[in-house]
Amino acid sequence: MAQALLSIQIIPKINPGEEVIPYVDEAISIIKASGVPYRVGPLETTMEGELDQLLDIVKQMSAAMIERGSPSVMSQIKLVVDAKANASMSRLLQKYPDGQ
């Protein structure tokens, strides 16, 4: 399959009195455990890899939110798929090494 970049903002519905941060931390830990390159941003996290693998990670993240107690999960996703394997965070960010 093609190389891809996938940015995700996961938004689990939480129960009254709960904080959302532990849910988000768990979602990011799933990305980290997958071994794909990723970058956490203030509003979303971007992953790099094969499309099927990235979509499987999204499925795992959603399942983990439900298992943790979220009655529903909404995710906003941005996706770039490149058959020539040109989709890479480092290539797109080479002009901005310091994130500026």
What is the name of the CATH architecture? Answer: 2-Layer Sandwich
Distance between the termini: 32 Å
Classify the helix fraction into a percent range: 25-40%
CATH class: Alpha Beta
Globally, the shape reads globular
The total tally of domains equals 1
Sheet/helix structural class = alpha+beta
Beta strand count: 4
Outline the low-pLDDT stretches: none
Radius of gyration equals: 14 Å
Describe the model.
The protein has 100 residues and is of the alpha+beta class. The chain has one domain (3-93): Alpha-Beta Plaits, CATH 3.30.70. Helices cover 37% and strands 29% of the residues. It contains 3 helices and 4 strands. Strands 2-3-1-4 form a 4-stranded antiparallel beta sheet. A hairpin with a 4-residue loop joins strand 2 (38-40) and strand 3. Helix 1 packs antiparallel against helix 2 (51-68). The model has no long low-confidence stretch (mean pLDDT 89).
Features:
4 strands, 3 helices, 37% helix, alpha+beta, Alpha-Beta Plaits, 100 residues
